[in-house]
Amino acid sequence: MIVSVRESKARMSELLTRACDGENVIITVRGKPTVQLVPINKGGNAADMSQWADELRRRHSGAKAVPAGSSGTIMDDLRG
């Protein structure tokens, strides 16, 4: 499945479900394939997410700090 970034915003929950079910989901920006949604793993847990967050903080240490909190809070802060 290939969708534009605009369409993906409106259908993100559906796209995440499809990707977790094994469907190939690609998001385009200005018509160019840019991102592929893939599940991290089946049965992920809080420890997995903590490691992912730590890695994200390390990668962006020179950029704006990644805030702690729920994923919704993090996304809101990054958008702001």
Features:
YefM-like fold, 49% helix, 3 helices, alpha+beta, globular, 80 residues, 3 strands, 2 domains, three-stranded mixed sheet, 18% strand
User: What is the straight-line distance between the termini?
Assistant: 30 Å
Structurally, the number of domains stands at 2
The profile of the biggest β sheet is:
3 strands, mixed
Shape annotation: globular
Instruction: Give the topology string: H per helix, E per strand.
Output: EHEEHH
Q: What do the pLDDT scores average to?
A: 80
Helix content: 40-55%
Secondary-structure-based class equals alpha+beta
β-sheet strand percentage: 15-25%
Please provide the count of β strands.
3
Adjacency order of strands in the biggest sheet: 1-2-3
Low-confidence segments, given as residue ranges, are: none
Output the radius of gyration: 14 Å
Query: What's the helix count?
Result: 3
In words, what does this structure look like?
This protein is α+β, with helices and mostly antiparallel strands. It has 2 domains: 1-39, YefM-like domain (YefM-like fold), CATH 3.40.1620; 41-80, no CATH class. The protein has 3 helices and 3 strands, in the order E-H-E-E-H-H. It has a 3-stranded mixed beta sheet, covered by helices on one side. Helix 1 links the parallel strand 1 and strand 2. It is globular, with a radius of gyration of 14 Å. The mean pLDDT is 80.
